[in-house]
Amino acid sequence: MTAQELREKYLKFFESKGHTIIPSASLVPRETDASVLFTTAGMHPLVPYLLGEEHPGGKRVANVQKCVRTGDIDDVGDNRHLTFFEMMGNWSFGDYFKKEAIEWSFEFLTDPKWLGLDKNRLYVTVFKGEGNIPRDETAIEIWKEVFTKSGMDVAVAGEDEIIKDNVRIIPLGTDDNFWIAGATGPCGGDTEMFYDTRPEEGVVEGKFSDLVDSFRLIEIWNDVFMEFEKKADGSVEKLSQQNVDTGMGVERTLAVLNGKENVFETELFQPIFVKIEELSGKKYDDYKKEFRIIADHIKAATFMIADGVTPLNVGRGYVLRRLIRRAIRYAYSIDLKEGGFSWGLSRVVIEMYGNFYTGLKEKENDIRAVLFEEEEKFRQTLENGLRELDKAIEEYRIRWEDSEVFGGFKVMPGNIVFKLFSTYGFPIELIKEIADEKKIFIDEEGFKGEFKKHQDLSRTASAGAFKGGLQGTGEMETKYHTATHLLLAALREILGPETYQKGSNITAERMRFDFNYPAKLTPEQLKQIEDLVNQKIQENIPVEMREMPKDEALKSVKVSFDPSRYPDVVKVYSIGDFSVEVCGGPHIQNTGELGSFRITKEEASSAGVRRIKAILE
Ligand code: SER
């Protein structure tokens, strides 16, 4: 099945169920919505109608919405993360509810007239109830009926979440089956549909989360029953109407339908890869990560520009600039240095998507102009900048002994980071990323100091830009940095003192933290960890820094590096007696500034290493 066939089938199906088909909204949210930089889900442009406003298309609408999510931008390159994706969705604004939503989902997925997927490979999760919201017995009953009617005998998993025998319905908690677009807004329990992608491995058996972790079960559709609204003060109130918001990813569904291992093997990427192969002389199979990043980023950039975004040093324009520059840098790394290559790829994107998203063709001139200009600008300095970066790495490194736990790392001084940023136009995240690959830490505090100095000297527009964009970014990152100290201390308390940091990565949107632990964390452990961090936040503990001779510091602080490799004077950051770390900083002054800490994901990073993603709200 082609992507276009899939979109058409979806829309036709819901049209036949009385839905008005509406076009995709812009990637740029409406002006009154300051909660996101880009449209991140199909529901986003529809929030007012979920809250009760009347939609011109009536109470039932369906569409295919272009979306951009940049929270996981540095994960793009693996086998599943994307910044740009399309989401098919059907909505009820106070009209039908659970019964119709679930029945139609099942019909569309399994009826040979529609997708014709094998119902025996389908598994569903439902909200098991948490807080004041009870277990979704209604959804469970409806699923049972739907399966029974199709001749299947199904059972519901217990608290152990184990799939065996005829278990197909798995109740899960808030983290998995309660949906909200951000910190506040319409929300509700959901039911998610998963498909067995490897039936050749025999009967599906085992703990649900393990089957998902190994990608045997892949989520293809999410029906959210939006009947609540979360307010800024954290309270959850019932909405005046019961809504349905469903989301089905085009890329993933297409991969499943065509038996492809991942989204990159589908026709939504292959033509771009062919073009990259042609331009670079390299093979996708040898450079998967680079190809995926370049293709995803140029695709996202193409759509953003068509929706009126231009490269800037702040906000949305900064994200666009970052995507284009990151794509160029990866292109360089596979010797794709031909001028205008980004437009070359973008043309393929327009070709692939232009019939459905007609705005792309209309904006072709803008897209070409922006890509050419941005590429030209960055290209001039990229090579010099990369050379400068290599030099900096050689010249200024402080070499830390490789240790079993941490691996070696080095620090790059702030003035060098600033030079790369100001003279060579490297987005700060890009510098960090390149540094990260070489196990280098950048001195962010030093960088900020340099920036302020520069700002005082030249009251230029870019100084103002920094204030509006990057400074905010820096502040958020500083908060996340402090949060990693709280998290590590909490992990040590809950999982044991032998827990160490194996890596960490911070963006303005979230933190990612890797640590050694032999097993998947249980929901109880995650809750304890989260609660403990939040407790420390609420205690408003000052974060204190003392500079002291290394020898003195090492008497009282447990460190993980080879002591002989520390500088003679080190900074020790302590948060009460909860956390004491030797660290370069920067940190915020008081834990109370962090707001509220929420773990959004726990997964395997590599053997014996777990990864937690968390956000501050
Ligand atoms: N809002 C839900 C999601 O994005 C369903 O559309 O998954």
Description of the molecule:
β8 and β9 form a beta hairpin. The protein is of the alpha+beta class and 617 residues long. It is globular and about 75 Å long. Strands 1, 2, 3, 4, 5, 7, 8, 9, 11 and 12 form a ten-stranded mixed β-sheet that branches. A four-stranded antiparallel β-sheet has the order 15-16-21-20, with helices on one face. It contains 20 helices and 21 strands. Helices cover 41% and strands 22% of the residues. The two termini are 41 Å apart. The chain has three domains: 3-265, Bira Bifunctional Protein, Domain 2 (BirA Bifunctional Protein, domain 2, 2-Layer Sandwich), CATH 3.30.930.10; 270-377, no CATH class; 403-616, Threonyl-tRNA Synthetase, Chain A, domain 2 (2-Layer Sandwich). Bound molecules: serine. Serine binds next to β11 and β12. Serine binds at residues 41-43, 89, 179, 222, 224, 245-247.
